[in-house]
Every structure is written in C-alpha cells, then in structure tokens.
Amino acid sequence: MRETMPQLEKLFLPRSVAVVGASPASDTISGRPLKLLREFGFSGNVFPVNPKYRTVAEYPCYPDVASLPETPDVVLVGVRASLVPSVMESCAARSVPFAVIFSSGFAESEDRDAQERILAIAREGGVRILGPNCQGMVNLVSRVPLSFSASLEGGRILPGHVAYVSQSGAFGFATFAMGNDRGVRFRYVVTTGNQADLDAIDVGRYVLQDPEVRLLLMYLEGVNDGERFLRMIREAHERRIPVGVLKVGKSPSSKAAVRSHTAALTGDEAVWDAVFRQYSIIPMEDAEDIVNLGLAFGAPQRPNGKRVAILTTSGGAGIVTADRCNDMELSVPTLSEATQEEVRRHIPPFGSSLNPVDMTAQIINDPEGFPKCLRAVLDSPEVDMVVSVHSMITGEAGWSMARSLADAWGESTKPLACCWLIDEEHGGLFRKFLRERGVPLFQSPRECVRSLAALAQWESAAPGKTFLAEGSDGERESAWPSPLLPSFSGTLTEYDAKRLLQAYGVPITREVLCTSLSEARDAAENIGYPVALKVMSGDILHKTEAGVVALHLRGEEELRNAYGRLLERARAFAPHAHIQGVLVQEMIESGLECLVGVKRDPLFGPIVAVGLGGVYVEVLRDLVLRKAPVDEPTALNMIEQLKGYPLLAGARGQKKRDIAALARLLRIVSEFACAEPDLLELDVNPVFVRAEGEGVVAADALVLRRGGIS
C-alpha cells in the first residue's frame, strides 16, 4: 500500500510568513529571518510577532499570532523552548498549516517530553512541524528563505538543480555554503532537525516531484522506517534522479550477543552498505563528497560509458589523473589514429597525442590549440567523458583557456570537468569565471575522478533497474506462501530447521531423527556408511562446542560407541536440556563449503547473505549481503562479488561448481525470509556446492525465531 505524499506546497511556496520572536537585531536567530526575507525579495506578506515592538525591520509588528490580520501559511518560531507550546496553541487556534521551529531544548535535551507536548498540540490543530532544533529551509528557485542561517545572507545565490535535505541544521547549511562557494547550484536546502513531525523522507519525496531536480543529496543520522526510505529511493529512480546519502552512525553500538555466523557478520554498517549497493544509492563520506557530487550531477550532461579522455598542460598531472581513473574503474583508452592526428596538429612535437593528451605548457603559444584539442576529444566516439587538467596557466593565456572551457561545456553533450591546479592569487578569477558559468571545477584530480566515476556508475546501474521489495505491493506480498514457522514450537533444532527449509524447496542431506540406538543402526544401514551423528536439542544450539557431533562413522561399532558418548556429553553440557533425538545423517564427501544466511534487520527487514564457508567467512569475512527478496540474477551477482568466487568458478583447473544451483538456493532462502515474519536469524552452514550440474545440499541449519529464544 503506497504512502500518501505529504502536501508541502504552502511550506515551499508560502504566500505569507510570520516570525514569532522577531527582533530588530538582524544578526540573531530571531532577527535574521526578516533580513533574509527582505534580501531575497520575498513577494508575500511578512508578519513580525513580538509584544515588545510596534515595528521590526520596517514591518508592522504584532503582539501574538492571534492578532495577525490573516492566517499565515508558515510561522517561524525562534523563541525559547518554554514558550513554544503556547505559540503552537496559537498556531493551532488559527489553523496555521506549517510551523518551522528553530528553538532547541526538546528531544535532544533532558526534557524529552517537551517535544511530545508540542507535537500533540500541532496534531490536534492540524499544524505540520519542521523541526524543532532545525535551521529551517530555503527554496532558492522561488526565493523563499525560511531560515536564520548566515550562509544565505546577500540574497544573490544562483538556483540550480540540486536538492539537499539534512537532518543536521548546522552541518546542512555549512556544507551548502561550501558547495555554493565552489560552484554547486542548489535548488532547495531543507534541514529537519529533531523531526518531530516532517522528516527527511517526507521532504525528499516532495522535492523529487520537481522535474528540474537532477540530484538529491541527504545527510541522515537515523531512519525510523527502512521501507519508507527505500520507497523514496524507488520513486527517485522512476524519475531518473540519483540519490547521494551521507549516513552517519552506521557502526553498531551496544548490541545483544548474536548467535549465528550470519548475524555476527552483518552489523549496521554492513547492512547499510549492502542496501546502498543494491539500490544504487551513492555513498558519501564527508562534506567534500556533497560538494563534488553536486558539481558532477548538477550539470546536465550524462555519460554513455566509462571511457575518459584527459587533456593536460602537465604530463605529471595527466599521469596522476589516469592513475585515479584506474583506481575508480574508469577507462583511459588510447585515442583513435584519426583523433590523434587532429590533436597532433595543435600540440608541440614533444607533447603526446595518446591518452592522457599532454598538450604541454607550450599550448599557450597557440590561441586555437587548446579549443581545437578539446573539440577533438569531445567529438571522439571512443570517449564518454573529458577531464581538462590545467597547471599554472596565467594571464591572457589563462583567460583564453577559461573562455574555451566555458564555451565547450555549454555546447557539449558529454560530461566535461576541469581541475585547475593553481593558487588563489593567480587563478582565483579564472575559477570564479568557470563556476559562474556552471563548469564543474574540482580541487584535485582525485575529487574529479571520484565524482565522474559515481556519475558513470549510476548511469550504468540505476536507469531502468527494478527492485524486488518485501510487501511493496499487494501482488508481491500475496506471492509468498503461508508462513510455516508457527507450526514449529520453541527454538528450532537443526532437524526442524532443515525440514522447514525443505518445505520451501531447499535440498537437504538424507537423514533420520532417531530416539534409540536400534533406530540409529537401521537408519545408518539405509543411508549407507559413512554417517554423522548429532544430538538434537533446542537448548543446545552450537553442537560442535558442546561436543555432541560425531563425523565419518564408518560402521556399526563406531556408531554404537558414538551414540552413547554423545548423549552423555549432551546431559553434562545442559543437564536440563530437552533431547529431541539423535540425527543420523549422510556424510557429504564432495563439494565446496558455502554459507547462506538471513538476519532480520530492525530497519530493512530480512537481509540475505552468501559467503564461502570455513576460513573464508570467519577470518576473511568474505560475505555479500542484500535486502531480501533477491531474484536469481541478483543472487548470481552476489556470488560473483565474493573474494573466493574463483574457487567456485573453477580456478587453476579445479572443477567448476554449480553456481546456478547456489543462486537458486539464495533466491529461495530470501523468499523464505520474507514469508516468515517470525524469522530472526537463519544460518545454513555449510551448504555443499557440488560440481556444475550436480546441485547443492544443505548439511546444517540454524533457525532462530521470534519468541523461540530462551
């Protein structure tokens, strides 16, 4: 069932704004909003509210919200926390649509109930809240500043195509200022603070409706509903809008002890990383990424591939850039002979027409040299993107190159970026010129290449991509079979866990649960030696640690000796344990050991994992995660990303394993996880992957269910 889109038009396009706590001191939290509204040329009505004054900033001032001549669309609240409830009561009485609360001292403080009080008042009166403890927002394209941030002063900020939503007000507007200074053209900047009501997802979904938005950037400290977040990502992809997220606080803090291999290896950070990869979310690590992605994705050009041409006036800078391209899996192909011939006409004989194209600093002696080389590589069919790396080119030569770059960028259908390695004194005016004309200008080759790589990666991965989603629509939800877990009481033994998996189509070992030695002898004869014996008890989850497993039993005498010994160990290890029986199981003599597992994440639901077993998962942590469900192509892609994949693919003359069967098992387990809402953890380990065409078999399994853990 789709979530209703929040109606935020009056917040982003208000016809009137009241400022409660308005002050004539224009550099304060309660005074700057009026200053910004005037500087931006806000065309609606502005109502200062403060009983101390008759006028503020040449506007008539009113004692309270009740006395306003009309009901404003937005009320900006900048008074101390103790006064906010009464302000919200006045807003509710006047049916004010939106309140932006700058005030702090709510959920982030010791008085956590204060936030619930103002939220209750707002809900009763139909008022939507942005904040509290936020720095507000700005709609740059419509020139609506609803903020007290000094980063907006001057009112001369050019609007563009980047939407930015930040839970942190200070970080949000500080990084906006950095980006604006470096040439990023934002369209909206919204800070959500404590998110008592409207949150970053509400705002993100709204701004995605604007057809002029080319990129959504988000700073997130927390998400309350993973499925809502992913629904927003799907909506962005439907509109071909990339989303970059700086997610902080991914590392696990205080966690309960986990009981399976899978859960031990899938902490918060690993889950977020998996979701980012699966849903083509662009990860960001710091403020520089916000700036650099804004430059790359804010431009209109998009690449058709990952091939980069590098033009440089410094051979060393060209080599550095080429190395960074290699690091980021971008190709720097040798240019065709026709393109090289055109380039050679305009560079000195000691330059290079290959790729990187080393024009040398002598290019400044030919005013037509640089634009001709630039045009040659932009027109080349073997090039998808162009990076122009300039060194200390100054004076009229510098201006000539800057104008040529700006002209080429304005005409190009391919991404064109520039690194101008020069100090502010000699190059500040050139860089200012390029930024004003929208040319993506980066501080270093590394920043430039990382941003273009993100651009190319998103273009190749996201457009047209479909995502399976747990319960995302009625048809998909009805496709899951009826849950079977409720028929299994308590914590599941290996025997019960494998019976459950078998019901979903997972191949398991041949085995018999026995309650006597005679039953065990008969079972072993029917299965065929060698066999394994395992004591089954929901009170003994890790059987090897308890010493209740015997492997490679090759005859009746070995079986008889092991049977009694294992039961004695079980009673010594857990005297009050309920013994379900002893499992007699075939020994799997061939196949590569793998692991398939599930952990139910509190935000994103079931997360499915695959890895090679043994040392690969426990020591090397060779595990790949995705949000369930996954289809078989996605499962195959997960397997191919394993560090140990060559062992499955038949490296060094070994047999190729049945990778298709492992992918099928991964798909089944992911659907099983979605069908069983009581499933907390699943560890199918080992899964033996046999030779190609011979399938897979699950040799052991652990299932932890909600309500079944003692």
Blueprint of the fold:
Layout: H1 9-12, E1 16-20, H2 32-39, E2 45-49, E3 55-56, E4 59-60, E5 74-77, H3 84-93, E6 98-101, H4 113-125, E7 128-130, E8 136-139, E9 144-147, E10 162-166, H5 169-181, E11 186-191, H6 200-207, E12 215-220, H7 226-238, E13 243-247, H8 261-264, H9 268-278, E14 282-283, H10 287-298, E15 308-312, H11 315-327, H12 337-344, E16 357-358, H13 369-379, E17 385-390, H14 395-411, E18 416-420, H15 424-436, E19 441-442, H16 445-461, H17 474-479, H18 494-503, E20 511-514, H19 517-527, E21 531-536, H20 543-546, E22 549-553, H21 556-573, E23 581-586, E24 592-601, E25 605-612, H22 615-618, E26 623-627, H23 632-640, H24 645-649, H25 659-675, E27 679-689, E28 696-698, E29 701-705
Parallel strand pairs: 1-2, 1-5, 5-6, 6-7, 10-11, 10-12, 12-13, 13-14, 15-16, 15-17, 17-18, 18-19
Antiparallel strand pairs: 3-4, 8-9, 8-11, 20-23, 21-22, 21-23, 24-25, 24-27, 25-26, 27-28, 27-29
